[in-house]
Amino acid sequence: MSATALRPPSLAGSASAVVWGLLLLVAVAAAALTGSAPGPARTGLRAGAVPASLASWYERAAAQCPGLSPALLAAQGYQESDFNPQAVSPVGAAGIAQFTADTWAIYGRDDDGSGHATRFNAHDAIMAQGRMMCRLLDKAAHSGIPGDPQVLALAGYNAGWGAVESHRGIPPYAETQGYVAHITGLARHWTALTTDAQFAALGRSGLRGS
Fold it and tell me: DSSP character for 9?
């Protein structure tokens, strides 16, 4: 929509002002939905970095949460299960994102419209992974613990947030320290740039049939 089309008429009263304000809001929203407002660049997932059937789901999962990158989620999924939606650990964590039954009860939803939510559905599990990481990012940001919130969130995903709090940082566990280092390193290789409008549109895309 051109600037000329958006020029307001002479406003005679408050009612006209309200109407004009609503029209302007609609125009701004339409520009965002169509991608015509480019916005600043942010991190996305490099094409070809992960299986094509999963890439859009990592993008959508990250789009649920400011500050969360799809490359980080994808690297985490690779570390957790090697992208195997049927993986089961010796302690009962299951699926591509390795949820325990208790944690799945909190974060799991039917995100792909299949009619039921399960840890073994990669689409549902990736979206749940994004929600859990978003919650951990929020805890990290408000904890007062020094360090990168994404790094602290990863440590919390692996070792539990209580361990991060008690150690005021990444716990001194070899598994957790290796987990964080491997994921953050891999995420850097899998990162691409996109715009805010393109990134946000992924979160509004239809999920069924993807």
Answer: P
Average pLDDT, the chain: 79
Q: Give the integer Cα–Cα distance in Å for 98 and 87.
A: 7
Strand partners, 45: 191
Question: Residues 9-67: pLDDT tens digits?
Answer: 333 344 444 433 443 333 333 333 333 334 344 567 888 889 999 999 999 999 999 88
Place of tokens 């005021």: 168
Residues 6+ apart with CB under 8 A from 164: 140, 143, 145, 152, 155, 156, 170, 171
* The token pair that represents 114 in the structure block: 């299949």
Q: Is the dihedral of CA 88, 89, 90, 92 positive or negative?
A: negative
CATH number of residue 150's parent domain: 1.10.530.10
CA distance 55 to 58: 5
User: Which tokens sit at 210?
Assistant: 């993807």
Do 5 and 50 sit in the same domain of this protein?
no
Query: HSE (CB half, 13 Å, CA atoms) of 199?
Result: 25
Answer for the pair 182, 79: CB distance below 8 angstroms, yes or no.
Answer: yes
Does some domain include residue 97?
Answer: yes
User: In this predicted model, what pLDDT tens digit does every residue of 127-142 receive, in sequence order?
Assistant: 999 999 999 999 999 9
176 and 190 in a common domain: yes
| CA nearest to 186, candidates 61, 54, 33, 49 | 49
Joined tokens for residue 111: 């995100």
Q: Identify how many contiguous H helices and E strands the chain contains and give both numbers.
A: 9, 2
